[in-house]
Amino acid sequence: DSGVTQTPKHLITATGQRVTLRCSPRSGDLSVYWYQQSLDQGLQFLIQYYNGEERAKGNILERFSAQQFPDLHSELNLSSLELGDSALYFCASSHSGGGQETQYFGPGTRLLVL
Amino acid sequence: AQKVTQAQTEISVVEKEDVTLDCVYETRDTTYYLFWYKQPPSGELVFLIRRNSFDEQNEISGRYSWNFQKSTSSFNFTITASQVVDSAVYFCALHVLYNTDKLIFGTGTRLQVFP
User: Fold this and answer.
1) Cis before A8 (ω within 30)
2) CA B28 – CA B17 distance, rounded (Å)
3) DSSP strand E in A1-114: where?
4) Of A43, A44, A100, which is closest to B33 when you measure between CB atoms?
5) Which of A2, A39, A43, A45 to mutate to test the interface with B (most CBs of B within 10 A)?
6) Any CB–CB contact under 8 A between A51 and chain B?
């Protein structure tokens, strides 16, 4: 158990819909990362928040957005969903960010868009 | 540009065999970190090891060992006396210190250990 929690574990929805994925980092971690794992793209970095502020952006679509709240939990919002958005979405956390720290991953949210 | 290559898509072995998973990375930076993660069939990503670019010492942890060679830009992972529970997808990842804080993952190697 990494200490990172993600809800829900599974999500099935229809095209055009909007969903919210939630992540709680390990106790004491200030940095939260979101990654998408799909069959065709592999594991790709989406976005990072540090202590409530956006720190880095990766291959995140404009239809997707994220935020980190004062209690440090984070939410990833996916809207106007398409079939291709079906993937496993991971959240990871580290204490303060930076390559010298290990990112610990949550169990993931498996999203299926029908 | 940074890149991680795991050329072995899938490896199958019989229990108790030794197996080595290859990882080759590309970066022009001198300070970077390399990681291995395990993704068992249940789907979570489990951290295995972190190595910084200034530490080329090999590491052993039980049946697991890692060989880091800067001369060949490789960070290979060996499982000795493999077990069925080692069956998983293994990912190698790169983090360049002075880049964004993202991990750059390889495409993974699926290891199947048969009894």
Assistant:
1) yes
2) 36
3) 5-7, 10-13, 19-24, 31-38, 42-50, 53-57, 64-68, 74-78, 87-94, 104-105, 109-113
4) A100
5) A43
6) no
- Hunting for tokens 């540009």 — which residue is that? B1
Number of A to B CB contacts under 8 A, please give it.
68
Q: What's the pLDDT tens digit per position in B66-108? A: 999 999 999 999 999 999 999 999 999 998 766 566 789 999 9
Q: Is the dihedral of CA B99, B102, B107, B110 positive or negative?
A: positive
> Cβ contact (<8 Å) for A45 and B97?
no
For tokens 């299926």, the residue is A112
Q: Give the contacts of A113 (CB within 8 A, at least 6 positions apart).
A: A13, A14, A15, A17, A81, A82, A83, A84, A85, A86
Q: Which tokens hold the place of A9?
A: 């574990």
**Token pair for A3:** 């200490």
A25 touches chain B (CB under 8 A): no
Suggest the residue from B5, B39, B103 to mutate for an interface test with chain A (most A CBs closer than 10 A).
B103
Which tens digit of pLDDT belongs to each residue from A51-94? 999 988 888 999 999 999 999 999 999 999 999 999 999 999 99
